[in-house]
């Protein structure tokens, strides 16, 4: 039943709340691989009217708390593999066993693929197959998906309502929490368990930051010589900070699933807009959080800062990005003695456990990501940067740090990495380039043509 699945998901959310320069591998990536079955054939154009009606009936019964097996059988027998996307959407909200098993069986009958999901959900296995197959959607898929998802969270209505949104709705999934639509500056959390952004947290000098262990991770940002450290455990709770550093307004999302903290100058939006106030929507795209602007209800691509829906899309907004350095607190404050750090209570009187996720992502991605470029392990930490000529470059963190410790350069042409704390900062001809750390699967899916740096000694 959908109600049970929602209760379980929201309950979980509440519980978390000196040598020659090195060279990159060939800039052309290896083709993503998948060990799954071949993609079924899919037609184009509108759905057959009978299939369209069957999907409407299936949704109505599902939302009413029942399940129409006869209608599900009709969809499975239709031969239109595109409808498998909606079966996956329903499967996301179905309780294990019962309805979930029926939907999985229908998917197998429709596509001819056997779903093997040892140790994970059928929904995850099904969605990974669909992403790898890249089956098209049919006209009207967005509207049908909206009818399901808006039952979960009505606050997503502005996103689905934009027919011009540059969002691949096939890849949108529910992250298990509702939208954070609290007003700017709200200190309290969400009654239903959203991921609450932290607006203008209290900052203290490094000399008062002994409350945070030196070996713990911070995300360091420097703007106009003003340095601020954001402790990882606090970012795991909030996943979004809006703050002014060095006289400039920034939004700093942290996608825990992607291992990626980024920083955007929100004042870089055109003058007709107030600086966006960034919030977490509760939706995901291939395991990357969907963030949005509270003011305009526009969705922005968390990984690139590009607006993909709403007024900010219409205005062609892409937020300017700056560097986030992932470092231990001890090394960061040694290199930046004037840094400040977020106060232990965030300035909102909150108590933060040092390990709120308790190893949640240690065994690999917990949400569907589809095929991954095989050049590096799925969750290998890389620092990603775009070279001045537009070439994306991934620097495997462990390899780069080892080269720097050995006194060797880490460089690709004019692009060079330097130690900052015990993280990495990247420059080109002496000027800083925006860079950030992320898991390989995330960087490579957003930059499929990325080069991968390797030492000359390799």
Kindly summarize this structure in a few lines:
With 458 residues, this protein is of the alpha+beta class.
Task: Kindly describe this structure.
With 458 residues, the protein is of the alpha+beta class. Helices cover 27% and strands 23% of the residues. It has 13 helices and 24 strands. The strands form 5 sheets. Strands 3, 7, 8, 9, 10 and 14 form a 6-stranded mixed β-sheet that branches. A 5-stranded mixed β-sheet has the order 1-24-18-17-23. Strands 4-16-6-5-15 form a 5-stranded mixed β-sheet. A hairpin with a 2-residue loop joins strand 5 and strand 6. Helix 2 packs parallel to helix 7 and helix 4 packs antiparallel against helix 5. It starts with a helix and ends with a strand.
Poorly predicted runs are: 1-34
Estimated helix fraction: 25-40%
User: What is the mean predicted local confidence, pLDDT?
Assistant: 91
Q: Roughly how many Å apart are the termini?
A: 53 Å
Q: Which word captures the global form?
A: globular
How does the helix and strand content classify structurally? Answer: alpha+beta
Major sheet characteristics? 6 strands, mixed
Number of helices: 13
Radius of gyration: 23 Å
Question: What is the count of β-strands?
Answer: 24
Strand content: 15-25%
